[in-house]
Design brief:
It is a single chain. The chain is an alpha/beta fold. It is elongated, with a radius of gyration of 43 Å. The termini are far apart. The strands form 2 sheets. The chain has a 5-stranded mixed sheet with strand order 3-2-1-4-5, sandwiched between helices. It has a two-stranded antiparallel sheet with strand order 6-7.
Length: 342
């Protein structure tokens, strides 16, 4: 009797429901049945179409929870949120707006900024316009690297800016055949890589070094700046002598010989091209060897930094002058080639 009343009640309820609700319920039940039949495993395999079906049904039918059996209602809500994110991602895709900046132009902006630390966005923007690159100044500022400290010139830029007014000094050691150690002092002018002065001693002192500066740079030829390391041999007497000459000292950082590159390169050339091939027997012998190499270095040896010319400029000799002759220098370690008339 109770079962009969239940069936009658459901029939009366279904009769009061609209045809639309019955169709949606029938569709939901059929869909779940097809999913269960298509899944031989214990765990349901739902596709994106299945998720989209229940997401749409949730919006069209208020009683969708009553017919849902295969998953929890919260799962359908989660599907809807994921679908909403995908929809807005598609809706917000780049269909217009500003054109993208070529990666090569971005790299050029960064390269200009690193090479010219004193330039701002307006200056770089002006250079790009002169190169025929149409780009806004705000875009240039966007791709410029951010600096943590105020811009300053590089050490190489400092050396280049003071090329004509700068000399470098340094010591290097030379052992002899009798195990004596001689100290060679060199003074190099940066403008033409000219070796202004050299001397040899066994016991360098601040007074001796100061006297070498006077011999290398008399009063009327004293440089504006002198670049040196922080060796203790450059004592108070040496510094007072520079003040008297009106020379400003520029000290490199500790343990940074790369900041004094020109004189370091000169010392390396003296070693590789001369002293590594000679056995030194004494101070007088060392002076003669160095004097011969320095004569070759100043007047004959070509330098890449001088457009392959010597510190003392060499004239180009046309073939019409005569045949090429070979002149030995530095005891035959090197040669100078000239044209001589027959």
């Amino acid at each position: 009797m109770i079962r009969f009343l239940g069936v009658v009640f459901r029939s009366a309820t279904d009769a009061l429901r609209s045809r639309r609700e019955l169709v949606l319920e029938n569709l939901a039940l059929r869909h779940q049945l097809s999913v269960l039949q298509a899944t031989p495993r214990r765990r349901l395999q739902l596709t994106n179409l299945d998720r989209a079906f229940w997401t749409m049904l949730r919006h069209r039918w208020s009683e969708w929870k009553r017919a849902l059996m295969i998953v929890q209602p919260e799962t359908v809500v989660r599907w809807h949120r994921q679908g909403f994110k995908l929809y807005w991602r598609w809706k917000s895709r780049a269909l217009g707006g500003r054109p993208r900046v070529d990666p090569q132009i971005q790299a050029l902006v960064r390269r200009m900024s690193f090479a010219n630390p004193l330039w701002g966005a307006p200056r770089i923007h002006g250079e790009l316009l002169k190169l025929g690159i149409e780009i806004s100044e705000t875009t240039v500022a966007k791709y410029m690297p951010r600096r943590r400290r105020p811009p300053s010139q590089s050490w190489r830029a400092f050396l280049d800016n003071h090329l004509k007014d700068l000399v470098s000094i340094d010591f290097f050691t030379v052992p002899s055949a009798t195990f004596q150690v001689f100290f060679v002092f060199v003074v190099l002018a940066h403008d033409r890589r000219r070796l202004l002065h050299f001397n040899v001693t066994e016991h360098p002192t601040a007074q001796w070094t100061a006297q070498q500066i006077v011999q290398a740079c008399p009063w009327d030829t004293a440089p504006r700046c002198l670049l040196r390391d922080r060796d203790a041999v450059y004592g108070n007497r040496f510094r007072r002598r520079l003040v008297g000459l009106g020379v400003t000292e520029v000290l490199i950082a500790p343990w940074a010989p790369w900041q004094n590159p020109y004189v370091e390169r000169l010392i390396g050339s003296i070693r590789r091209e001369c002293l590594d091939h000679v056995i030194v027997f004494g101070e007088a012998h060392l002076r003669r060897v160095l004097r011969g190499y320095i004569s070759y270095y100043q007047s004959s040896r070509t330098h890449l930094s001088l457009d392959k010319d010597a510190p003392d400029p060499r004239e180009v000799q046309p073939p019409t002058i005569g045949e090429v002759v070979e002149l030995p220098e530095v005891g035959g370690l090197h040669h100078r080639y000239e044209r001589r008339a027959a």
